[in-house]
């Protein structure tokens, strides 16, 4: 029955792979963050994690696992969008000696965690009150831009959306944003939301560094190459005008995207912001143009004023959602 063996839970992003063990009776244990650049494959990273804990022998290694990954899951073969890892789910399951490897989109996993988040793990930005049992929206800039939603299933539970909303076409709000998009479009004919609303990484021409470059070009500011970390740090404290303009524009455009998502889903249960970038902006984010832009929707402004927006500050929220998904799978398939 494998009751004594923990489940292996993972949250796989373009920059880091996070692992933990989970037992339904006692919760999570032994969380660890492994840089994806230090491991040639996901199998190697997972095996390294288990080896460190002495869980490689069949009698003690996990029998079941759930991995949330920053990628669409459309079949057995997975090729990461923002990293070089690629693999067969069934072959990975076999290589790790698992009876079941449940692979799901990382933001679907995070969406499933939303009903379980505690008040101390959330920072509300702006006004609004959540309507119980209504849809919830989820968006999060990290290495890429994750988008999901949580819908009531009509039986007291929830259904997480597995989409690729970060790749929708970015819609500029005003003349400055149109100029920025025009600048980027000269190199990238399709300017997706993720092209600018993320941290970027893995040597890709995207995210905050590209947005900073475009802002400097549009505002006729001398170019100085900056990393995403430098842009956010200098922008938040106001030490660099171009970085501050970039961070302000980033937050405003994120507000547009978040509002679009809420209107599309009818997410009166609230809009939640995950990912690695916004939580690091600290108290600045509440004063940024995000919430003002979120509410600037013409005839639907009053609607959006009633929808609360939250920044997720939980350390490993996607673990909770992945474990919930695996528990549901095991219950459905009558396994423990």
TrEMBL record:
Q: Broadest EC class?
A: transferase
What is the first-listed, main subcellular location in coarse terms? Answer: cytoplasm
Protein location: Cytoplasm
Catalytic activity reads: D-glucose + ATP = D-glucose 6-phosphate + ADP + H(+)
Is the Iron keyword given for this protein? no
Q: Where is the signal peptide?
A: none
InterPro entries in alphabetical order: ATPase_NBD (IPR043129), Bacterial_glucokinase (IPR050201), Glucokinase (IPR003836)
EC number(s) per entry: 2.7.1.2
- GO MF terms held by the record: ATP binding; D-glucose binding; glucokinase activity
**Transmembrane annotation, as ranges:** none
Annotated residues that bind ATP are located at 10-15
The biological processes this protein is annotated with in GO are: glycolytic process
Keyword list, A-Z: ATP-binding, Cytoplasm, Glycolysis, Kinase, Nucleotide-binding, Transferase
Give Gene Ontology CC terms.
cytosol
Stated family: Belongs to the bacterial glucokinase family.
Name the chain's protein. Glucokinase
């Amino acid at each position: 029955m494998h009751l004594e063996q923990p489940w292996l839970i993972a949250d796989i992003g373009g920059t880091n792979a996070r692992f933990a063990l989970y037992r339904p009776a006692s919760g999570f244990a032994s969380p660890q963050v492994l840089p994806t650049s230090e491991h040639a494959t996901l199998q190697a990273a997972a095996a390294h994690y288990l080896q460190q804990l002495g869980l490689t022998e069949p009698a003690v290694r996990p029998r079941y696992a759930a991995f949330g990954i920053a990628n669409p899951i459309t079949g057995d073969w997975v090729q990461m969008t923002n990293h070089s890892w690629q693999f067969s789910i069934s072959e990975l399951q076999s290589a790790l000696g698992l009876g079941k490897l449940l692979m799901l989109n990382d933001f679907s996993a995070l969406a499933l965690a939303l009903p379980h988040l505690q008040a101390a793990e959330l920072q509300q930005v702006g006004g609004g009150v959540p309507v119980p049992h209504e849809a919830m929206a989820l968006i999060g800039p990290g290495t890429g831009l994750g988008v999901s939603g949580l819908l009531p299933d009509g039986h007291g539970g929830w259904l997480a959306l597995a989409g690729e909303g970060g790749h929708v076409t970015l819609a500029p709000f005003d003349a400055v944003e149109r100029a920025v998009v025009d600048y980027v479009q000269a190199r990238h004919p399709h300017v997706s939301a993720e092209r600018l609303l993320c941290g970027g990484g893995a040597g890709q021409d995207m995210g905050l560094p590209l947005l900073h470059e475009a802002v400097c070009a549009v505002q006729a500011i001398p170019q100085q190459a900056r990393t995403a970390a430098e842009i956010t740090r200098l922008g938040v404290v106001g030490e660099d005008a171009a970085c501050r303009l970039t961070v302000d524009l980033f937050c405003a455009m994120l507000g547009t995207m978040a509002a679009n998502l809420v209107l599309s889903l009818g997410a009166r249960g609230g809009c939640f912001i995950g990912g690695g970038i916004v939580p690091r902006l600290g108290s600045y984010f509440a004063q940024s143009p995000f919430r003002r832009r979120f509410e600037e929707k013409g005839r639907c402004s009053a609607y959006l004023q009633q929808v609360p927006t939250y920044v997720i500050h939980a350390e490993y929220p996607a673990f909770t959602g992945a474990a919930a998904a695996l528990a549901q799978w095991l219950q459905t398939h009558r396994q423990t």
